Amino acid sequence: MKSRAKSILLISAAALATAGCSVFDSSRNENLVYVARPVEQLYNNASDALTGRRYDQAVLLYDEVERQHPYSEWASRSNIMSAFANYQARNYEEAINAARRYISLHPGNDETVYAYYLIGICYFEQIVDVGRDQGITENAYAAFDDVVRRYPETEYAADARLKMDMIQDQLAGKEMEIGRWYLRRNQHLAAINRFREVVDEYQTTSHTPEALYRLTEAYLSIGLESEAMAAASVLGYNYPATEWYADAYALMEDTGNTPGAEPESNRRGFFGLF
Which fold does the domain 172-266 belong to in CATH? Predict the structure, then answer.
């Protein structure tokens, strides 16, 4: 991402004039004093602030380019750079708002894909542990999905797909945590719903073997041996070498049944079983 920002800066390098002094208030909550200045000077000062990691100052100066020269090419560049500077400052909400504004104003520009991607990154870096609300996680997934759908062949889409896999694992982990909580309180039907959600919606994540074991456990707890056998068999078919299958096999063995290998014609795998 930083290299992407640098490439944007390099586009304008040839046009930059010698930097003059800017009027800057150190408080981020106050605007720059309006002093008419050449667009090249303003943009150059903003770029210097960004390079010097004075991100809040860079944001104010990029925004000043838009304010003083709203219809120039520099204004559109400043818009996306303001979003990037806000991201660097970890002002995630402001970065998202700036990126969305860029998208609305310049839907066909080359840098629009980066704006979509930046929104996803801002959400992604705010993801919290599975013990807390996962609204931000869901927003990150939706934002990266936008990148993949709109720009499937780009480098941004490739990275977005990787992060979407990580997000899926996070969301599955949240479902598992809730399911275990229900199971500890003997609320077996509620637990089963959560574990089936993992098997149905997050089946490629690392949580699927445990979800199948927990289903076996929960079904047995309420006397549904055939459903428990089905879950254990699927676990054995897809994850035979895991400890979760060994534990499920032991549970079923106690009932007098074992989830041994079925004939090939009866094997359905965990896709579409439930």
Answer: 1.25.40
